[in-house]
Task: structure prediction
Amino acid sequence: MHKFIHTADIHLDSPLRGLETYDDAPVAEIRGATRRAFDALVDLAIDEAVAFVLIAGDLYDGDWKDYNTGLYFAGRMGRLARAGIRVFIVSGNHDAASQITKAIPWPDNVRVFSSRKPESIKLEELGIVIHGQSYSFRAVTDNLAADFPRKEPGYINIGLLHTSLTGRPGHESYAPCSVTELQAKDYEYWALGHVHRREIVAEEPWIVFPGNLQGRHIREDGAKGVTVVTVHDGRVAEVQERSLDVLRWATCRVDLSECGSMESVYGAVRQAFIRERDQVDGRTLAFRLVLTGNSAVHAGLLARTAELTEEFRGIAAGLGELWLEQVRFQTQRQVRLEEILGEDTPLAGLLATIHQLELNGDTLLTLVPELAVLKAKLPAEVDSGDEPFLDSTPAKIAELHAEVRELLIAKLLHLGGGSQ
Result:
């Protein structure tokens, strides 16, 4: 019986985003989160006496600022070497973007697959052959899997590939291929990377995205870690998820439908925070609070969003290592707007105008010229990625339109003494 670890999308030394507003944020812990998670991976590999570790791309996070990232990784590979554990790597799109990494000599136990064509490495003592191919540049749009060889008879065959398959939300379409194509190779296990959320795509054969090792922002929420695979009697006998993240991201949704006062809101939020804290096994928790429900305090909430955000952060701080990344106010009015719009009053006229407000990306930049100037001056990475500075996609603009309209209506109702 043998075990191996399948990991991907480690993004060593990638910054964690979303906690920048905290003066007292645990800066050292945040900066070192990806390294601490990787240390946990090395510890697990040694404790489980695995035969080898597979890294399916994006070990790094683009080019390094200096050699410290490489020196750190080489040191951890040395630990694995002393334990007799080999490491097999294919580079992904972020690795291919790095120039410095191409010149680093790795310890003898580390093997990086060629980017020119698929390679096959036989581990005779284990009866295993690993097939893989690295990226030669960032945006690989060719179907790399098409050139992978058919199964090597008499061995357990493993495919190591950084791919989006037929596409996954939030991920570029790199090295596209279909599940049917992978199954046709007749391998026993496909170790994939690129998708940051764990997914068992298929079990016959096993086609697995382990997800990334450490969540880096709110869109990478939930448990993160690696996949431990047990091979026995010439087959994949067990596939296990192991959580290794040191700081966890979560979305905390609180329904305020039954809350008739601000005191009851504070109580509901506090209880929700406690539930989130108790689910992360002592880890530091960074989370987003989303308030929902048809609530009697809806207008009051939207009239005090800035103050309430700080008050909720105070509640979180008092409960331990909880860091509130953001608050989304998504409650609904209990009163029907049509009832108010039917009245012949100045307030009803204002509400009708706001109700008909239309927004789109061009309109925003036209209405607020300073926004266009600021947008043009920002670095490209600020206006791209997971949460761009101004997301002008139709879905996002529709969401923004609804939020702005509801905020203005709620403020008018609150100031005008109208119903909630």
Observations:
- The chain has 13 helices and 15 strands.
